[in-house]
Amino acid sequence: MLILNYSHPLTPDQLAQLEGLTGVAVEAVRELPAQLDLEAPFAPQAVALADAAQLTPEQWQTTPLLLVPPALNFAAVALLAELHGRMGYFPPVVRLRPVAGALPPRYEVAEIINLQAVRDTARKKRG
Known about the structure:
alpha/beta, 5 helices, two-stranded antiparallel sheet
């Protein structure tokens, strides 16, 4: 599995948690900095973020991947829209959370959100 990480670097513990949750080995992690210009439109910047992953159209549609989205909410949603267009579905996303009481602060994998399943379930609510 390929992880596209647009957030802080993942630790070995976090990678082990992801492998445990998915039952799939992490083959590669692409660390993709997501520093956006807050004064410029986000849609073109989302295209640049997706392009930075350096995947071919075929790879976008066939590679099993997890997304660690940028922390900035508007960047994350613009990137999700761009990736949906390239992949044909919403990628699963990794949600991290702080470890309670940890000093120095540490983060753990809270869950993997299957966005496509969320979308498919919501679609049933349309009349």
